[in-house]
Write a structure and sequence with these properties.
By secondary structure, the chain is mainly alpha-helical. It has helices at 2-21, 27-40, 48-65, 71-87, 91-104, 108-113, 140-144, 177-181; strands spanning 126-130, 150-151, 166-167, 187-191. The protein is elongated and about 75 Å long.
Length: 200
């Protein structure tokens, strides 16, 4: 009886993990969260496909979220997840494999491997940029940035040739404070690999 209660608790935890994962905006982050929490809790480690598959899946998903992903990661995730569904001894491992597989068909993993997060959630794959034509050089974005990532000079009516505002991408933490304070919508969120902001 104690073993049965313990198993039911683990099953409930898997459901809780899935519910929490669904709250993430990006499907790849959903899958990464699910796998991380599964490894930290319900995984029993009794079968090789589930145990090793989960650890390898975490590495591949981290690569995609952190902008280091490739087509090889996507192919590996498909193989790992399919093996988990087919060969895991328990429902927990099979459910984890299915959760990973569910998103492969949507093509979102491949998009991440190509350097694009459709939901604009993965920090390594997005950038904040300032559209020069919309910027009025008010300096609100620079004042709001706690990380000194924005440089430029506030415009003055009697002065010309001042330095336009730009965001230093290596300093930017993607916190979004600049976009909140810009009165003209000049600060935009774009894919990091985009040559120009979308919609400009």
């Amino acid at each position: 009886m104690p073993e049965q209660i313990k198993e039911q608790t683990k099953e409930l935890k898997v459901d809780d993990i899935k519910a929490a994962a669904e709250e993430k905006g990006c499907p790849v982050q959903k899958a990464l969260y699910f796998v991380n929490e599964f490894l930290a809790g319900p995984m029993c480690g009794r079968c090789f496909p589930c145990m090793m598959g989960s650890y390898e899946a975490r590495i591949r998903l981290q690569n995609l979220v952190e902008g280091r992903g490739s087509d090889a990661d996507v192919l590996a995730l498909g193989r790992i997840a399919a093996d988990m569904v087919e060969a895991s001894f328990c429902k927990k491992g099979k459910d984890t494999g299915r959760f990973i597989l569910d998103w492969i068909a949507t093509g979102v993993y491949k998009e991440h491997a190509e350097g694009h997060c459709p939901d604009m959630q993965c920090q390594a794959l997005i950038e904040y940029r300032i559209i020069p034509g919309k910027c009025i050089s008010c300096g609100a974005c620079k004042n709001a940035c706690k990380f000194l990532a924005i440089h430029g000079e506030q415009g003055k009516s009697y002065k010309s040739g001042y330095l336009p505002f730009e965001i230093r991408q290596l300093r930017c933490t993607r916190c979004g404070e600049c976009i909140k304070v810009c009165p003209t919508g000049a600060v935009v969120l774009v894919a990091a690999k985009a040559s120009e902001p979308v919609g400009v």
